[in-house]
Please model this.
Amino acid sequence: MRVFVTRSLPGEALNRLKERGLEVEVHPGPLLPREELLRKVEGVVGLIPTVEDRIDAPVMDRAKDLKVIACYSVGVDHVDLEAAKARGIRVTHTPGVLTEATADFTLALLLAVARRVVEGVDYAKAGLWKAWHPELLLGLDLEGLTLGLIGMGRIGQAVAQRALAFGMRVVYHARTPKPLPYPFLPLEDLLQEADIVSLHTPLTPETHRLLNRKRLFAMKRGAILLNTARGPLVDTEALVEALKGHLFGAGLDVTDPEPLPPGHPLYALPNAVITPHLGSAGRRTRERMAEVAVENLLAVLEGREPKNPVV
Ligand code: DGY
Model:
């Protein structure tokens, strides 16, 4: 029985598959061309894809023996869940283990944007640092600012806890209000009130371009946008415009398109801090994600209920 893994994964988890007698093929990366992915999945019973691999009906149809797609991610927008359901293929993901790492990274982006860390680094490296000046690269003081979280699952709540430690006020919007000690606001109210808007909602047809042009410009003048969730939640073209005067800045760990091609207008903006989808990139976190994906995959193949089913 064969399992295909679309990237090499940190840690030892994949050895467990071999110990159970499975034949494992690992594509080291980068992204497999579509044709090659279609060829590689032929005859596999298990697939471990990453967020960049589009696992849709044609892929599933080529993988006639496929029983489980064990995503190496919490987000599953790269998998056609309906197609999987229709074919009786189980889909699992890795919630929980990456919560703290992603929340940490959200704060890293917030600090980088608010305190103009990247601009400061570039300034120093360019040899422009000749003297200390009281007005050099002034940023935003976080204490007392309002953080508006859109999406209040595990990661949103972990970001909220960290924001409190910085003396910020937290408000949130989610599909339904939750029993939490933060005010729930309708989306349009949150956009008007928040000094910082941070996205923590899954990408679905309903949330695609949730922050469209109208909503981006409905954000407070001088606010910050953070996106560690999924790029297509935001209208990129409108964001470029909003960053040229309306917003203070943006911290983007995810983009649309992703990867963001060299020369993209976002790169030219000093107030956009862009990182290559690193939210969960703590070594221990990425190892645990591999363990969870492997455990889910084995559970399905061994006839047990997986711990983290999506379909
Ligand atoms: C996820 O898990 O969905 C992240 O985007 C990658 O870790």
Observations:
- Residues 283-301 form the longest helix (19 residues).
- The chain has eleven helices and eleven strands.
- Residues 51, 73-75, 98, 279-280 surround (2R)-2,3-dihydroxypropanoic acid (CB under 6 Å).
